[in-house]
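Course assignment 3, question 2. Fill in each field.
Student: A.L.
Task: Predict the tertiary structure for the chain below.
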Amino acid sequence: MKDKIVITITDVNGSRNYLLSQVLKKIFIYVVAVVLLVFVFGALYMGYLQDETNALRETKEELISSSENLNIEYEKMKQKLSTKEEELMAIEDKISLLEEQIGLNDDVNSTTIDDRLEQIKLTVEQQNIIFSMIPNGKVMEDGGVTASFGWRTHPVLGHKHLHQGIDLRAPIGTPVYAPADGVVQVAGFNIVSGYGYLVVLEHNFGFKTRFAHLSRRDVVKEGQFVKKGDLIGYSGNTGISTGPHLHYEIRFVQRPLDPANFINWNRKNYEEIFQKEKRVSWQSLVKAVANLTLKQP
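Answer field:
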């Protein structure tokens, strides 16, 4: 007869005897039951995770497919807009050429500008108004002009067009300043025109300035008022560009003007602008400024 190990447990209710083999058997049954439960619940949870993973994978594939379709549509729209932009630019160039050919670029009363200006004695206060409201002076520390205002062959696109501003050579990150008081009309990346990151300022008396190929920094926002000399951006190489530079435009009621005349304009050569830039009705503008100061108390 084999020896058996007996475990005796005594409490207030008396003594109870248990065979060790029976205790081990119960423990084993409990352990197996727990392991089975863990395995079942684990299998169910793994199945749930697998279903969630498959659902997320399907959602990801759908999003990727939608993104690709949106990119295709975006490229199509971008191409259409680029075509329209080129057509508009070509029409604008033709209009400018026709204006030059028939003499619409010149002020119809240019022969009498000097006589009319002499009739108005501009005070220092009136000159201050003009130089604060009309673009003048340098807009940045540049390394010279790389492309002047006028007709040329586009360096990238290859077609002849009217270069409606001047290109100023400058390292990327050169500060650009407002040439006159005004309000920010545009501040953002221009996709279709090739200007890249563009800032447009609207000034008084119908003048407007454009600053193209800027670095993509949100220095100013649309609707923001700026004073002459305020920082409006930094030079860059965005858009259709062959190298770091600033493309600077000045317009008067949508007529492109040569910015070089205004960059070199100061109090010492105050009246030279009236002869150099004849697309502006200077005599009426000066009278308006004179009347403005006369009405002030």
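Instructor remarks: The longest strand covers residues 182-190. Residues 106-111 have pLDDT under 50 and may be disordered.
Grade: pending
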